[in-house]
Amino acid sequence: RAPWLTAEPMIAEMRLQWWRDALAEIGRGGPVRRHVVTTPLARIIGAHEAALLDELVAARRWDIARAPFEDIGHFRRHIAATAGNLLVVATRALGGAPEEPVRAGGFALGLANWLRAVPALRAAGRVPLVDGRPEAVRALAEEGIESLAGARAARATIPRAARPAMLALFQAGPVLAAARARPALVAEGGLGPAPFRDRLTLIARVASGVW
Prior knowledge:
mainly alpha
C-alpha cells in the first residue's frame, strides 16, 4: 500500500525505502526494527526470502511514477517480481515448493488481479497496459491461462504443507477466461468477483485441496 498512501512521490519513495531497509536488516540476520509486520516476518523468512521481497518493493516504484511500461517484457517482469515473488515467499514460509510451478501460478494470479485493477489504475493516472487493444488483452489473458495450466500440471509436486498458499489461485482461472472471451470487460471493470459464488468456490477448494 505504501505507494498509494500519499500523492507526494518523495514521501512514497521514502515509505518504500523504509521497507527495503527493514528487509535488508532481516536479510543480514541481525537486529530488526520493531514493527507489527517486520517483527513476526523476521521469524519466518531468511535472507533469500528477504531478497525476493526487496525485489517486490523495488518493483512497486512503478506505482509512484506515471510512466508507462517500456515494453511487454517490462510488464511481465513487473508481474513476476510482485505476484510471483510473493507467492514464492509464501510457499517457502510454509516449507517450500518447486519454484517453477509456483512462479507460473504467481504470474497467472498477478495477471488476473492486474486486469481486474485496470480501471482503478487508469483512474489514478497510470498506464497499466502496454497495449489495450482487444486482441492484445486477449493474448495476455491467454498467456495467463497457459501459465496457470502449467502450474496446475505440476500440482502433485507441491508439498501438502505449502498448498494453502496456492489456494490464492482459485479466482485466477475464471477471471482470465472472462478476459479472453470478452476483452472489453477489462476496461469496463467487469472482471470483479461474485462474492457469494467465490466464497463457495473457496470452501470447496479448501476442502478438496485442489487449486
